[in-house]
Write a structure and sequence with these properties.
Elements (H helix, E strand, L loop, with lengths): L10 H15 L9 H13 L4 E3 L3 H4 L6 E5 L13 E7 L11 E4 L2 E4 L7 H19 L5 E7 L7 H4 L8 E9 L5 E6 L1 E10 L15 H11 L3 E4 L2 E10 L9 E10 L2 H21 L3 E10 L2 E2 L5 H12 L5 E4 L5 H7 L4 E5 L12 E2 H17 L2
Parallel strand pairs: 3-6, 3-7, 7-16, 8-15
Antiparallel strand pairs: 1-2, 2-6, 4-5, 5-17, 8-14, 8-16, 9-12, 9-13, 10-11, 11-12
Helix pairs in contact: 1-4, 1-10, 4-10, 6-7, 8-10
């Protein structure tokens, strides 16, 4: 590993990046429906002379496309034909559901959706950057090989990445470009995330004539929620009730009620403790309300912390410094494909990509951020040599 040189993309490369980003945003690709994006990305990679593999993860995730993997060998040296070392760079193809079509507008140097819906910069800004990087490296290979991974179903608790055969990857470590915050932030810690589904079952009865014969599942669920500590529990831990649905009519004692809750923490043991308390509270409320409850508690992904001296942190820091960008190392409450790779034994750093307001109708990204992220990606690869 060496210091990054600060080599930047050309004006032509940056213009193509921006044009491609706008084109990709207008390809609808909510989770499970990534076929259009997968085809567009695979076509572009093949146009750059790369071989593209689509794995068989669709049979596991239920998506209409699999994950894409392409490799760019390192440049030959006097000592060997080509580098046998690889680093991984990853972005995801899917978005959260669309409330309206994407019609990209460029206003005052910032891309937005003309309609009241997401833009799709999460994560198409990163996809466009990696395609720009692929074009550059297919012409001018780096000293280290690059393994490009484009995942599906990231927005569904990282299902696409979970379905990858990580043992078949060749990289020593990697980078995910999937954090909607200012460029320069390196996400060195991410949470363990538990999801709890609670299905309360009571007894239906006429609410006006025989309420005593009923057992109200909504009331039991409400009692459980009232007992829980929700929101930000400490600087590393959050808890939330996300959905509640039940009952059939205002004049019927509710026979059923389903609730979805979550617990997250950068401290794995703390996340486990909060999720366990949720489980206990739900059970006690069901008993007090004379209801049955079926619970499903699942660990959606495992948290991680990277040390300052780990290879991906060192390389990203060098790349940012070479570009004159101040770096900061932070924790996040959100998961990314990096959680999956780290859990599989592949050190992986999530790198902020300068997008803003992901998952919201006012989602945006500036031209400057897109262009800078291409320079950052080039610099990261250079720093890994």
């Amino acid at each position: 590993m060496r210091a990054a040189t600060g080599v930047c993309a050309s004006a032509e490369e940056k213009q193509r990046l921006c044009d491609e980003f706008a084109r990709l945003c207008e390809i609808e690709s909510p989770s499970l429906s990534e076929r259009g994006m997968a085809d567009a990305v695979a076509t572009e990679l093949r146009t750059s002379g790369l071989e593209v593999e689509e794995d068989e993860s669709a049979s596991e995730t239920g998506a209409d496309a699999g994950n894409l993997i392409a490799r760019i060998p390192g440049a030959p040296s006097r000592a060997q034909a080509a580098s046998d070392r690889f680093v991984l760079l990853c972005a995801h193809l899917d978005t959260v559901p669309l409330a309206a079509p994407v019609e990209v507008a460029l206003e005052n140097g910032s891309y937005r959706n003309r309609n009241e819906a997401i833009l799709g910069a999460d994560n198409k800004a990163a996809v466009a950057v990696l395609l720009g990087l692929a074009r550059r490296l297919s012409r001018e290979p780096a000293a280290v090989g690059v393994e490009l991974v484009f995942t599906t179903c990231e927005e569904l608790a990282l299902q696409g990445a979970k379905a990858i055969d990580c043992a078949a990857l060749r990289s020593d470590y990697g980078f995910v470009f999937d954090h909607a915050s200012p460029i320069g932030e390196l996400i060195v810690a991410a949470p363990t995330y538990y999801r709890l589904e609670a299905r309360f079952r009571g007894q239906a009865a006429h609410a006006g004539i025989r309420p005593e014969a009923g057992r109200n599942a909504i009331a039991a669920a409400a009692a459980a929620i009232a007992e829980l500590e929700l929101g930000r529990l400490d600087e590393e831990t959050t808890a939330n009730v996300g959905t509640i649905a039940g009952g059939s009519s205002a004049n019927v004692v509710a026979e059923c009620c389903n609730v979805e809750l979550e617990a997250r923490s950068l401290d794995h043991d703390r996340a486990t403790a909060v999720a366990t308390r949720m489980l206990d509270t739900v059970g006690a409320a069901a008993t007090d309300g004379d209801c049955d409850v079926e619970t499903i508690l699942s660990e959606q992904f495992r948290g991680y912390r990277l040390q300052r001296g780990s290879p991906p942190v060192v390389a990203a820091t060098a790349a940012l410094e070479a570009l004159g960008i101040e770096q900061s190392q932070i924790g996040t409450g959100g998961g990314s494909d990096a959680n999956v790779f780290v859990a599989a034994g592949l050190p992986c750093l999530n790198v902020a990509n300068g997008t803003a307001h992901n998952h919201q109708p006012d989602e945006s990204v500036t031209v400057a951020a897109l262009e800078t992220m291409l320079d950052v990606a080039i610099g990261i690869v250079a720093a890994c040599e």
